[in-house]
Prior knowledge:
By secondary structure, the protein is mainly alpha-helical. The chain is built from five helices and two strands. The protein has helices spanning 14-27, 40-47, 51-63, 89-103, 108-122, and strands at 67-70, 74-77. Strand 1 (67-70) and strand 2 form a beta hairpin. The chain is globular and about 50 Å long.
Amino acid sequence: MVEYRIDRRSGxxxxxxxxxxxxxxxxLGLLEPGDRLPTAREVVAATAVNPNTVLKAYRELERxxxxxxxxxxxxxxxxxxGSAPAHSPLRAELEAWADRARAAGLERDDVAALFTAVLDQxxxxxxx
Length: 128
């Protein structure tokens, strides 16, 4: 099951953080079709966010076709995203790279900017 971590200083809306973290779990294979998401009550207890915020995030995920709400049962994953398993050898390489970046004195935002620049270079977005 996914555990949401809310960063109130990030400037990113709370419901968007829940959507993003759910999508990340789907991409990494931590959530699979048929898995139940935590109930709104469970998320509220763990993160102290408003229940309506959780429901808004879940509605967004449902609108995107990633989850489905089953009345009285909960919200369940309909489909996965990507194919990057959480225990991929590439993850180990990336962790080693992150360790080297940190040892070189780079801050988190510096690493994120560098990584994003490389991603943009190698995975150009469609201009649509």
